[in-house]
User: Fold this.
Amino acid sequence: MQEITLWNGRTVPRLGMGCWALGGPLYAGEVPLSYGDVDDTASRRAIAVALELGIRVFDTAPNYGAGHSELVLGEALAGRDDVLIFTKVGQSGVLETRQANPPDASPTAIRASVEASRRRLRRDRLDLLQLHLNDYPVERAAEVFDTCEALRAEGIVSAYGWSTDDADRAAAYADREGFVAVQHDFNVFQPAREVLDVARRKGLVSLARLPLAMGLLTGKYRPGAGTGRNDVRASGVDWLVYFKDGEPAPEFVRKLAALRDLLTVGGRSLAQGALGWILARSSHTVPLPGFKSEAQVRDNAGAVEKGPLPPGVMAEIDAVLGA
Assistant:
């Protein structure tokens, strides 16, 4: 099984579970910011299966369902000191209304967010705290990470990092002792070369968000078979790439069709092939595929058993994509 040794000396399977979908609805006014409705019973079953299959990393945030994702994880993982939970600061929501709050990464907001996350997750100490504002001004981030460092000194946070796709932002704080990880978009359509180079040079763990391109790389979504209207992929927000108005973007549908046979080599599902591509591309990355069901967890976890895609297949994929 593919494994990685983290900053704390813990060795874990090289796959985590992204818990955005477990939060259920969140809105900015009427604009959906989540993957729609969720069944908490199914979520708890899926988490239990992940644990049985050896998964030990779960990534969440206070704005995933306005804290509901953290509540579900806290209940399901209570007393499990063998499990690492990563969460974030900078974005949050109001659970009662399922409305997103304005972004806030001030020291006061960070401390309030951390205390709320600790309560919901039932944890005295947070394993990893990440700034959840992709384009936060790099000079203002010094105050953010000063606060994170103070929380680390107080024993409330074990380590911290930044959820950003900007290599310069990650590099700016990578030399701090407590700064150990960068979370960023990374999938077969988005190779993230610059961020990965920073992570390699600075000894950071790369955490791959959207490793399945918001579900497109599972093959589930085809033109005419899109998402529900209460799904972020139907929201039309300007940062959406892989979906437009709830349907997979045509250019990525074409790319996936060209890659299908290569990704499914060796009996892999499409999802396993897409995750195997990440495992082959970077030895210091932990993919964080999302899930709502036991079946999705089993499919994703199978990628660790099947391992990285073979070098020859990786070269063929590069040729198809013109990489």
Q: What stands out?
A: The chain has one domain: 3-213+274-306. The chain has ten helices and 16 strands. The first strand starts at residue 3 and ends at 5.
